[in-house]
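Q:
My hope is that you can spare some time for a protein that puzzles me. I hope you can help me see how the letters and the tokens relate. Thank you; the sequence and its tokens follow:
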Amino acid sequence: MMISKFNKLIHNKIIWAVFAIIISLAMIGFFAPSGGDRNAAREPNSAGTLFGESVTRDAFNRARLFNQSFQNQRSNSIEDQERIREETWQRLAILASARQRGIVVTDRELSETIQRDPTFATNGAFDRRRYQQLIEGRMRIRVGTFEQYLREELMLRKMTALVGQSLWISPYELERSVARLTDLFTIHLVAIPYSTL
């Protein structure tokens, strides 16, 4: 008796429809993005939140400009605006994650990167005057802003390298790779003539 009622309950399409709607609403609430303009109404200078911390509009706009390599593309299409906005939030999230992991770019790394760039060289050697002239004259930004951009780009490269190094391989593949490098084989041969068989 109890089994037949349970069987009818399982085959009831209305119960399954209600169950599917509840699951769908729960997933929408769980996977909805937490950053963006929803929180901007609470704080007038906030572009949204990232990892529970407020991101100011100035920081967001600077990250957007850095993400586009100082080429402020003003596209009218909604798809392009959404893509740029999403890429900017991803950039901010990766940089925040890098800072949480203690990944930094030292002043020495930054200066070596700038000095190795042939664009800023005169006769094969780094020229500080040329560097300032190109950054402030042609790009029309302050040297400090460019160095902050370059520091963030180097940090993003470090995070990319970190992800590349930490790709998961299966234990079987790891054992095979280690075995090829470390295993020793000893081969013993026994000659048995046909007559003894």
About this structure: The CA atoms of residues 155 and 177 lie 31 Å apart. The first strand starts at residue 46 and ends at 50.
